[in-house]
Amino acid sequence: MTASAVRRWVAPVVLGVLALLLWQAFVVGAGIKPYLLPSPTAIVEQLVLVLPLVWSAALATGMNVLVGLVVGSVVAVGAAVVAARSRMADTLLSPTAAALSVMPIVALAPALNTMFGTTSTTPRRLVVSVVVFAPVFVNMLRGLRQVQPVHRDLLKAYAATPRQITRTVTIPGALPYLFTGLRIASSTAVIAAIVAEYFGGLQNGLGSRITSAASNSAYARAWAFVLGAILLGLVFYLATLALERTVARRQGG
Amino acid sequence: MSAVEARGVGKVFSSRSGDVVALEGIDLTVAAGEFVALIGPSGCGKSTLLRLIADLDAPTTGELTVFGKTPQQAREAQDYGIAFQQAGLLPWRTVTANVELPLELHGVGKAERAGRARELLSLVGLDDFAGHFPHQLSGGMQQRVAIARSLAERPSLLLMDEPFGALDEMTRERMQTELVRICAESGAAVVFVTHSIPEAVFLSQRVVVMSPRPGRISAVVPVNLGDVRGEGLREDASFFAAVTAVREALHGTPVTARGVDLR
């Protein structure tokens, strides 16, 4: 490991450990009641106890995130390609994207629960798709519009077909923008999937576990599930980041 | 048959604030294999004329043919290769893949593409950079890749819009020498847009001088410095004489000679 890599990893870890120590000292020293703030050791104790449950809950929520992310992104990319080609489609789709981006999932989740029934994962996955659509659509569309005039002239000089232009210039040029959109979307997708579970329905995900633990006054356990939620968010963020890096390297970035 | 034939070609750009006459009454013939430079101040329509020949824009008036066809037919038949002021390489493609782009678009097979790209890269002296990406190259090297790309389909006409405009003087002179050699080897006609008088004189057989508002051809200066043009030519008296002739044509009046102090 090089010196810069050590600095990059060691500094945040030291800061994190220091914060945990302060937290522990504060809770024990000031005698804070567990229902106000459990100590890190109590949370870890609970985490060890309910680890299989955290794992299965994270898998359930993670599946919702994954399906919603893929469906939302595919629809958004398709819509962006159409909007970039036709002005009319753009005037129809862009306001729709804006409307979707301000739609409160808190309002959407209960409505969809009623629509699809409480034993279905569909409402949660739909909520995630809706949340994912706007950032992916907006960024992809901007990317598709970034074609440099010199590239447009060049491809016209080569008498390239519209399909060839899309394949050789437009799509590769838009990819970095798509990944920016996906990176934003992946974090909000995890949040949306968890929040969507707060409104009843299946009790198998992280969000449901957090609410039920909290309502049973098992605060340390609730925090253990929160920890699971943080890790799930990190996994999705790092996965999109890795995908972005791989494509960038293949494109010579 | 001449490579380019323009008769009374004009171009008017319409905008909300009114019409702009970019070109008016252009008569120009470029013979097959001839190197013609278009020179003039900014806004004289030299790039516009090149874009009309390339069928990237359409003339408003007059008649324009490229190898006896309409510019559109010539473009679709890939009769010309083109290079712009910006190299315009695709940043996500390697140097080789950039050179192969036109061949790939026109369905040339993989093995043949690779062979042709190797040939072209050695022609522009970039054999060692075949697998590099554009951002790993200097501006001059990128421009050489763009020139290699413009030659990929062995065009009988090369259209070049200030391809060395963004380069430093030293790189520029080296590129000019290379271009003279490449053109002699390929036998292509060239229409070369520039705003550098020495560049126009060094490269071409005829310099077409243009004036702005509206863009017109104000003079045509034959240069004829011979087929073999090496670095020595840049310090030759005939070179300076031709530079002076073009300069006078550009300014419209003879430049009064001054005492030259040689030390």
Automatic annotation (TrEMBL), chain A:
<dbReference type="GO" id="GO:0005886">
    <property type="term" value="C:plasma membrane"/>
</dbReference>
<keyword id="KW-1133">Transmembrane helix</keyword>
<feature type="transmembrane region" description="Helical">
    <location>
        <begin position="91"/>
        <end position="112"/>
    </location>
</feature>
<keyword id="KW-0813">Transport</keyword>
<dbReference type="Pfam" id="PF00528">
    <property type="entry name" value="BPD_transp_1"/>
</dbReference>
<comment type="similarity">
    <text>Belongs to the binding-protein-dependent transport system permease family.</text>
</comment>
<feature type="domain" description="ABC transmembrane type-1">
    <location>
        <begin position="54"/>
        <end position="242"/>
    </location>
</feature>
<keyword id="KW-0067">ATP-binding</keyword>
<protein>
    <submittedName>
        <fullName>ABC transporter ATP-binding protein</fullName>
    </submittedName>
</protein>
<feature type="transmembrane region" description="Helical">
    <location>
        <begin position="53"/>
        <end position="84"/>
    </location>
</feature>
<keyword id="KW-1003">Cell membrane</keyword>
<dbReference type="InterPro" id="IPR035906">
    <property type="entry name" value="MetI-like_sf"/>
</dbReference>
<feature type="transmembrane region" description="Helical">
    <location>
        <begin position="124"/>
        <end position="144"/>
    </location>
</feature>
<dbReference type="GO" id="GO:0005524">
    <property type="term" value="F:ATP binding"/>
</dbReference>
<feature type="transmembrane region" description="Helical">
    <location>
        <begin position="177"/>
        <end position="200"/>
    </location>
</feature>
<dbReference type="GO" id="GO:0055085">
    <property type="term" value="P:transmembrane transport"/>
</dbReference>
<dbReference type="InterPro" id="IPR000515">
    <property type="entry name" value="MetI-like"/>
</dbReference>
<keyword id="KW-0472">Membrane</keyword>
<keyword id="KW-0812">Transmembrane</keyword>
<feature type="transmembrane region" description="Helical">
    <location>
        <begin position="220"/>
        <end position="243"/>
    </location>
</feature>
<keyword id="KW-0547">Nucleotide-binding</keyword>
Automatic annotation (TrEMBL), chain B:
<dbReference type="InterPro" id="IPR027417">
    <property type="entry name" value="P-loop_NTPase"/>
</dbReference>
<keyword id="KW-0449">Lipoprotein</keyword>
<keyword id="KW-0547">Nucleotide-binding</keyword>
<protein>
    <submittedName>
        <fullName>Sulfonate ABC transporter ATP-binding lipoprotein</fullName>
    </submittedName>
</protein>
<feature type="domain" description="ABC transporter">
    <location>
        <begin position="4"/>
        <end position="237"/>
    </location>
</feature>
<dbReference type="Pfam" id="PF00005">
    <property type="entry name" value="ABC_tran"/>
</dbReference>
<dbReference type="GO" id="GO:0005524">
    <property type="term" value="F:ATP binding"/>
</dbReference>
<keyword id="KW-0813">Transport</keyword>
<keyword id="KW-0067">ATP-binding</keyword>
<dbReference type="InterPro" id="IPR003439">
    <property type="entry name" value="ABC_transporter-like_ATP-bd"/>
</dbReference>
<dbReference type="InterPro" id="IPR017871">
    <property type="entry name" value="ABC_transporter-like_CS"/>
</dbReference>
<dbReference type="GO" id="GO:0016887">
    <property type="term" value="F:ATP hydrolysis activity"/>
</dbReference>
<dbReference type="InterPro" id="IPR050166">
    <property type="entry name" value="ABC_transporter_ATP-bind"/>
</dbReference>
<dbReference type="InterPro" id="IPR003593">
    <property type="entry name" value="AAA+_ATPase"/>
</dbReference>
